[in-house]
Amino acid sequence: MVAEIKMKITVLGFGIAKEIFGSSEIHLEVNDVLDVRGLRVLLEGKYPPLTKLKSYMYAINEEYAEDKQIINSGDEIALIPPVSGG
């Protein structure tokens, strides 16, 4: 029998994302290889108010990430909501 490997990830929330999470960071355990799109689906399922945002981006290790980018254990992940200027 093969042991299931779980990957622990931390997602930092800024602006409205921080309010939606109820914290400046959340911790998740995932069983599979996860890309940014998969993380988006996972978080929108756990935090439905995210679906009401017009758009938001993810950054991995301080660089904007595309949907197909794979997330590795230890990566710094940030959810960046839309920013309004004034």
| Mean pLDDT rating | 89
What is the molecular shape? Answer: globular
Major sheet: 5 strands, mixed
What is the N-to-C succession of helices and strands? Answer: EHEEHEEEE
Our measurement of the CA-to-CA distance between the termini, rounded to an integer number of angstroms, reads 58 Å
Stretches where pLDDT is under 50 for at least 5 consecutive residues are none
Percent helix range? 10-25%
Q: State the secondary-structure class.
A: alpha+beta
Q: What oligomerization state is this entry in?
A: single chain
Q: What count of helical segments does DSSP give?
A: 2
Instruction: Determine the strand fraction and express it as a percent band.
Output: 25-35%
- Order of strands in the sheet with the most strands? 2-1-7-4-5
Rg over CA atoms, rounded to whole Å, is: 13 Å
Number of strands: 7
